[in-house]
Amino acid sequence: MPLVPLQADILGPDYRVETISLPPDTEGPVVATLVTLEPERSNGRAVLHVHGFADYFFHTEYAEWWAARGYTFYALDLRKYGRSIRAHQTPNYVADLGEYHAEIDLAWWRITQRDGHREVVASGHSTGGLTVPLWVHERRPAELVAMVLNSPWFDMQGPAWLRSPAARVAIERIGTSRPLQQIPRRINGVYGRSLHRDHGGEWDYDLDWKPLESRPVYVGWLRAIRRGHAMLHDGLDIGVPTLVLSSARSWFGAQTDETAATHDIVLDVQQIRHWASSVGRHVTSVAIEGAMHDVVLSRPGPRAQAYAAMSTWLDAWVPRPSGEQDDEGGDADHGDHRA
Q1: How many of the other CB atoms lie within 10 Å of CB of 251?
Q2: Per residue in 22-32, pLDDT tens?
Q3: Do residues 48 and 111 lie in contact, with contact meaning Cβ atoms separated by under 8 Å?
Q4: Structural domain boundaries in the chain
Q5: What is the top-level taxon of the source organism (predicted)?
Q6: Burial class (CB in 10 A: 0-12, 13-18, 19+), 14
Q7: Rounded CA gap, 147 and 133, in Å?
Q8: Which site in 106, 174, 194, 222 is 20 to 30 Å from 259, CA atoms measured?
Q9: Backbone dihedral region of 279: left (phi > 0), alpha (psi from -120 to 50 degrees) or beta?
Q10: pLDDT per residue as tens digits for the range 196-209
Q11: What does the DSSP 8-state code read for residue 146?
């Protein structure tokens, strides 16, 4: 159990939150935020989850699935995201993905040293699914036993010229000289509307922290992403079992609520599957038919398939402590282990 008192989070009294102070940057003071959910019956293990771009942690069903299996669940709102955004900051901006190492380091210390967890599963979604493996590759934490990546951003989607040497040079040059130059793009808000319960979706979240229209993209930030992609493409050395979840299909045509709810309309799932083996030596890639970009926010059917796949994979590669019993109430909502 944590040795310091934590505050109740906006998600409810079962979720506790703490602010992590970080060194200031050129915009001023910087913080990250760690949210914790304790299981009723702990198995001594933990999960650390990192969100995607223009996102933050509100995934209570995902957290409660882990807690039902005895894991203490931790979610990190990175600097300038969600609970960690401050008025003087450019939301979601960093010039180097390595900047996030500081808050992940401090969160990991809290989980393993302060709270005493000796076996930890790392989890990341979308951009977080790139940031987390890069951190693991750099830090190689001894307590890491597995990793789960939900639609990780492994490459630049879109026309081939965006991945050309000329495009890389342009991003490097402009990202260095004019890092806060915005990249024009059209966002129709379909993906956000497919999620939020006020617009036809299932989920409730803060639209100030996760806007329907996403966030501006800056060249300096994209330079950081492309450098991260290059490191991944060179091959990472992550020795623990890794599960890569994605939708079965992407859709980049005219977007509707239906295509957003049944396809990945954000990333190219072929790229995800192509680069999955670059993460490490032990990778399982599972495509979920009818899933959306954030697989664990999909409609109930695909969501149940995703949790069933997670359960089968976890039981195979991270066996439960001897004598531990299934919590059928937790898994019953998400599909059978045999799926």
Answers
A1: 18
A2: 999 999 999 99
A3: yes
A4: 7-156+236-332
A5: Bacteria
A6: middle
A7: 8
A8: 222
A9: alpha
A10: 999 989 999 999 99
A11: E
Tell me the one-letter amino acid at 2: P
Q: Is the pTM of this model over 0.90?
A: yes
pLDDT at 9 > cutoff 60: yes
For the record, the structure tokens of 150 come out as 């939900």
Percent of the chain at pLDDT > 70 equals 93
Phi then psi dihedrals of residue 201, to 5 deg: -90, -165
Percentage of the residues of the chain whose pLDDT score is greater than 90: 86
The tokens describing 33, both together, are 């935020």
Angle, vertex CA 113, rays to CA 109 and CA 117, nearest 5: 100
CATH topology assigned to domain 7-156+236-332? Rossmann fold (3.40.50)
Give the whole-angstrom CA distance, residue 239 versus residue 147: 10
pLDDT at 114: 97
Contacts of 128 (CB under 8 A, 6+ apart): 49, 50, 51, 52, 55, 78, 152
What is the rounded average pLDDT of the residues 186-196? Answer: 88
Q: Which residues of 21-57 are buried (b: 16+ CB within 10 A; e: fewer)?
A: ebeeeeeeebbbbbbbbebeeeeebbbbbbbbbbbbb
> What mean pLDDT value characterizes the chain?
92
